[in-house]
Amino acid sequence: MKVLILGGYGVFGGRLVELLRDIYGLELIVCGRSLERAQAFCASHRGATRVEPLRLDRANVLEALRTVKPDLVVDASGPFQDYGADPYHVIACCLTAGVDYLDFADGADFVFGVSAFDARAKAAGIVVLSGVSSFPVLTAAVLRRMAATMDIHAVEGGIAPSPYAGIGLNVMRAVLGYAGGPVTLLRGGRPFRGRGLTESRRFTVAVPGRMPLRNLRFSLVDVPDLQVIPPEHPAMTDIWMGAGPVPEFLHRALNLLARTRARFGLPALTPFSKLFYAVLNRMRFGEHRGGMFVSARGRSEGRNVVRSWHLLAEGDDGPLIPSMAIEALIRKMLRGERPAPGARSAVRALELADYEALFEGRAIVSGFREDDGGGPIYRAVLGSALDGLPSPVRDLHEGAGMRRWTGSATVRRGTGLLARLVCAVVGFPETAQGAAATITFTPEQGAERWTRTIGGKTFTSLQSVGTGRDRHLLVERFGIARFSLALVRDGERLLFVPRRWSIGTVPMPGRLLPVGETFESAVDGQFAFDVTIRAPLVGLIVAYRGTLRPETDPRRISPAAT
Hints:
By secondary structure, this protein is of the alpha+beta class. Helix 1 packs across helix 12, helix 3 (61-68) runs parallel beside helix 4 (89-97) and helix 8 packs across helix 11 (273-280).
């Protein structure tokens, strides 16, 4: 099989070549306006796949198709929103030459308009699929999985790239081209004209039981999903899609420019493309992680439901995801699974199972959540990840009403002046071996008070499900100190990872955040806890570990709770 890739040495084309490098018998023609860059890219290629460089301008595509005779053309160049008076020139050339076509198009109007070639493509027996990327292929696959058990009324989604992922100049041109410009979406059951990057929402990407991304600002983007997904779900009345690039101060600067353009009717911001491209590709700090989410509201079995799907990608695997849809289709074609002829959006090109197979072996995880609220606190935060923990851990956290667990603990306190002061204020226990330990759990208006007595010393905290910027986190309050904790499943252990904190309503610096390994597990069939609290400038404050067992049936609901 021979594949001609326009923009083959660019960001998306280059990653596609990387994903396909293990396939013997596959030949990739890496095209672009610069022969030198194409040659350098091919020279650096390592793998079984054969690669060949080719200098090619879009205006000469038909001649190249007749000369090279590829089986498939992949357009990975763009920006698709700025293809001029003849935006579908490459598609027309493929139809004339009898060559299948796929593209990475991210422009909603471009993808939606491809269906105009459907009759001609079917008559020629040619496959033309547009928008073969995370938006809308992965989004649509997720929503089809959800639609099996619910009627979808409203959808929100977004992608949060790693700051280290890198962004292509053509992508930057596309973003600045629609920033402040009209974006067509569905709102309140009617077509609505929004403005790109002028409206923002905050979300937390959190796969159950995994370390979530930090709460991020997402802004409205012009993606194919906005136009091609609503027809797939007749009950849908609203759809919104955003992107959450970091650092946030540059994101907000782009929001300001977009609003200025929209307010004063200014021309497109594309002249700033090279500036933003240079800045964004140099402002690389923070976690090398990215993610994606899709949230749906609707009805299931006569009740209102809110469900969400989350994806997390670590390190260099995340930037590969936008190219995986075309990778999957090429692999299917090599197995003889060619899509039906015709010209259309790629909204039905793949199922979620196709993606999940590609995620295996990579640092990419995903999962669904029920976001309806209610139920035990730890179930709300952990979701399905709670089911994978040992039964004593599940029993302690899924109990209802007032209950007590008893056992023993070993305690070690810090010896520094500040450590002793903190212990005295909070009421942490004294250093001891095998001290009697009791925890009483008391429901309090959507929260739960934990009263711990160890060696005769009592201290309390109030735990609740995080909201707002603490979404999908556990919030624990010790007096006026408030800590937001990620609950992470590590095999059969439940880790508590501090993410942010405040004193009263005042956010505190992250560099002063108390840390220390804290986890729950099971030992000899009993619930086991291991808590270590350290703080910068203070050192060890306290460490205590032990085991507990229920004093009564952990699932018993007390009369007070009913």
